[in-house]
Amino acid sequence: MIKTLSFGAMHISVAFLVVWAMTGSWMTGGLVALVEPCINTVAYHFHEKVWKRRGEQEAAGAGRAGWLAHSH
To answer: Which residues, 6 or more positions from 20, have their beta carbon under 8 angstroms from its beta carbon?
Structure first.
């Protein structure tokens, strides 16, 4: 858990510093640093769902291929 919190703090810090360096605005940097990780977390949730479904489809395909190979 400490590693996760450390990574989260680093992510927010990097987001803030990059946007602040690009815009010169502390407020914009802060806003992006707070909003971006929240949106990224939601996007990651859906990314994982897609990958899980893909893995299940590949496993089902491998099972069918194995069944066909043994049926001859």
So the answer is: 26, 28, 29
The half-sphere exposure of 23 on its side-chain side, counting CA atoms within 13 A, is: 14
Predicted confidence at residue 8, as pLDDT, reads 85
Q: What's the number of CA atoms in the CB half-sphere (13 Å) around residue 31? A: 6
CA-closest candidate to residue 44, choices 66, 19, 11: 11
Residues of the chain with pLDDT under 70: 63-72
Task: For residues 72 and 67, give the distance between their C-alpha atoms in angstroms, rounded to a whole number.
Answer: 9
CA distance 30 to 37: 12
| Dist CA 33 CA 28 (whole Å) | 8
- Residue written as tokens 């703090």? 9
